[in-house]
Amino acid sequence: MARYDFVVLGSGPAGRRAAIQAAKLGQSVLVIDDRSKVGGVSVHTGTIPSKTLRETALNLSGWRERGFYGRSFRAKENIGSDDLAVRMAKTFDHEVAVLEHQFARNGVAVCVGRGRFESPNSLVVEREMAGNVVEERIEADKILIAVGTAPHRPAHIPFNGKNVIDSDDFILNPRLPRSLVVVGGGVIGVEYATIFSVLDIPVTLIDPRPSLLEFLDREVVDHLVHLMRDRGIGLRLNGDVENIRFAANGDPVCVLTDGRMVSGELVLFTVGRVGATEHLNLAAAGLTADARGRLEVNRKTFQTVQPHIYAAGDVIGFPSLASTSLEQGRAAACHAFGRPTSIEDQSPPYGVYSVPEMSCVGLSEEEARKQGLSYECGVARFRETSRGHIMGMDYGILKMICDRSTRKLLGVHIVGEGASELIHIGQAVLNLGGTLDYFIENSFNYPTLAEGYKIAALDIWNRLQAQSGEVISLQVGSVAASA
Ligand SMILES: Cc1cc2nc3c(=O)[nH]c(=O)nc-3n(C[C@H](O)[C@H](O)[C@H](O)COP(=O)(O)OP(=O)(O)OC[C@H]3O[C@@H](n4cnc5c(N)ncnc54)[C@H](O)[C@@H]3O)c2cc1C
Ligand SMILES: NC(=O)c1ccc[n+]([C@@H]2O[C@H](COP(=O)([O-])OP(=O)(O)OC[C@H]3O[C@@H](n4cnc5c(N)ncnc54)[C@H](O)[C@@H]3O)[C@@H](O)[C@H]2O)c1
Predict the structure, then answer these.
(1) Which of 169, 188, 221, 414 to mutate to test the pocket of ligand 2 (most atoms within 8 A of CB)?
(2) I need a surface site. Which of 194, 218, 275, 452 has the fewest CB within 10 A?
(3) Ligand 1 center–CA 146 separation, angstroms
(4) Does the beta carbon of 35 lie inside 6 Å of ligand 1?
(5) Euclidean distance between CA atoms 154 and 267, whole angstroms
(6) Do 164-271 and 356-474 fold alike per CATH?
């Protein structure tokens, strides 16, 4: 029986980062994944293909130029499904090649097959060989479960892989429908709804909640919702799909519990995902998953109740991002091999790749209020920055929240072009305990959208001075809190 120091189930962001980290620490490592190529959901049906689709839609539609040349501007006429598929295939090949090379040069062994526990320290891998299923047994000192998730498919919905599909189905067979109904206004739903609308496809988005993306700052989400409505995206909030009928021409019709009906050529379900733990035979390892297939871990060490078995990535639930999964995987491997980290003490950024994109770090205004903090907010509008003028940008805001007495940065929320990159400036200042003073007392490149930080900081500073009636002196030169 083969034996490894570290066996990783799943080659998505958590698994890949953990495997390479453990190999760098001198351990023998095996990664098992049940897909024919490495990369996990992230590379096959999640982050990478959906962001490639977005980039393709923005480039071919000429979206970024429409502020200048008008809404009818097109970079390419007659965009077709092939345009989407070609670019996705190229990105996929590149991502897989890079990852395979990383594994190879770090001496990480890779096995294609479905793993399951046989005991707390041994696994069985089912592999297909020449049409037969063969089983291989593997022993491991430490194990990481990084098997990710699969789309949640409500039992009463007639998924058929053709015109009622989930987001994995879509990526495996990308196409441009004449009209689209997206069910589920979470991150995936909002991203796809806005991406398809860029391609001039009529979109309706249905969600049972009264508002979208409740974990984000309301002002920022309201800005996005305004832009979505302005582009003609239909929002059916407080809407739960009771069933789906098919019209005489075969198009699906969603019937909502309150009697509303919404039809389109394609219905895309994005109503959350469930942990892929079903086939792991967790009982043999003394583990159990919750009703949504997720595993509980110590959020500092990523150990399950079995100290030598770790879990990381989407299988442990919120925040379920590739970005956080990568770090959780690294933290798990570091802990397993004697190099503990402290990632739980840092505020991670969240990026939503809607059109326009949104990103945030730290507290939203609603959270600051709930915590009873004395705070002040400042807002910069991209259309008031020179870079915004040059880019023809008539939308987008950067909102900053800071503590009124210490001036410590509490949160940054951005909607607009470049939000997912710009956020890292705020993230650095926030996680280093910095204050408003940093943004005011430092020069920024000009013209840039990052100038928005300075504008928002000045907005707060002006308010603070108006409220106190005094000139507030700033602390120059340091990112550290001035209080
Ligand atoms: C449409 C979409 C868009 C997204 N966009 C973003 C984004 O823009 N930014 C972001 O940060 N995150 C994004 N995410 C989330 C991101 O993809 C996930 O957070 C990330 O993939 C989770 O990584 P993971 O390590 O948990 O494993 P996953 O990427 O889920 O991979 C797990 C792998 O394990 C395999 N596996 C499962 N069971 C077994 C088994 N028994 N044996 C062997 N292998 C097994 C699976 O087949 C899979 O290959 C998106 C997700 C989706 C669906
Ligand atoms: N940019 C990113 O970082 C990114 C992008 C895409 C996905 N992801 C991750 O992927 C995961 C899955 O995303 P998701 O959007 O599917 O899940 P989600 O849990 O974020 O959202 C699900 C949405 O579906 C709605 N919903 C639930 N049941 C419904 C029903 N019966 N009918 C209609 N709507 C219903 C919910 O109200 C919710 O708004 C998330 O955890 C997310 O963090 C991240």
Answers:
(1) 188
(2) 218
(3) 9
(4) yes
(5) 14
(6) no
Long-range pairs, 365-371, Cβ under 8 A, ≥24: 365/217, 365/218, 365/219, 365/399, 365/401, 365/411, 366/217, 366/218, 367/411, 368/401, 368/410, 368/411
pLDDT in tens, 412-445: 999 999 999 999 999 999 999 999 999 999 999 9
How high is the ipTM of this complex?
Answer: 0.93
Q: Which ligand 2 atom sits nearest the alpha carbon of residue 214?
A: 39
**pTM of structure:** 0.95
Inter-helix orientation angle 322-336/13-24, to 10° = 30
Cα gap 173→82, rounded to integer Å: 10
Q: Please work out whether the CB of residue 99 comes within 6 Å of at least one atom of ligand 1.
A: no
The pLDDT score that the predictor gives to residue 235 is: 97
Pocket of ligand 2, candidates 171, 206, 212, 271: which has the most ligand atoms within 8 Å of its Cβ, to mutate? 271
Whether the Cβ atoms of residue 359 and residue 414 lie closer than 8 Å to each other: yes
pLDDT at 269 exceeding the cut of 50? yes
Structure tokens at 94: 């590149």
Verify whether ligand 1 is closer than 6 Å to residue 12 (CB atom).
yes
pLDDT tens digits, one per residue of 151-208: 999 999 999 999 999 999 999 999 999 999 999 999 999 999 999 999 999 999 999 9
Which residue carries 């049409």 as its tokens?
Answer: 131
Angle at alpha carbon of residue 146, lines to 142 and 148, rounded to 5°: 165
Q: Is residue 146 within 6 Å of ligand 1 at its C-beta? A: yes
Selection from 227, 174, 173, 222 nearest residue 197 by Cα: 227
The CATH number of the structural domain formed by 356-474 is: 3.30.390.30
Model pLDDT for residues 399-413, shown as the tens digit of each residue: 999 999 999 999 999
Encode pLDDT of 24-49 as tens digits. 999 999 999 999 999 999 999 999 99
Query: CATH homologous superfamily of domain 2-151+274-336?
Result: FAD/NAD(P)-binding domain (3.50.50.60)
Query: Distance of CA 280 to CAs 3, 114, 115, 289, 476, Å?
Result: 19, 9, 7, 10, 56
Question: Looking at residues 204-213, what average pLDDT do you find?
Answer: 96
Q: Whose CA is nearest to atom 34 of ligand 2?
A: 184
The amino acid sitting at 267 is: V
pLDDT of residue 482: 45
Q: Which residue ranges make up each domain of the chain?
A: 2-151+274-336, 164-271, 356-474
Tell me the CA–centroid distance for residue 192 and ligand 1, in Å: 17
Tokens, residue 52: 């490639």
- Give the three-class secondary structure for 236: strand
Architecture of domain 164-271: 3-Layer(bba) Sandwich (3.50)
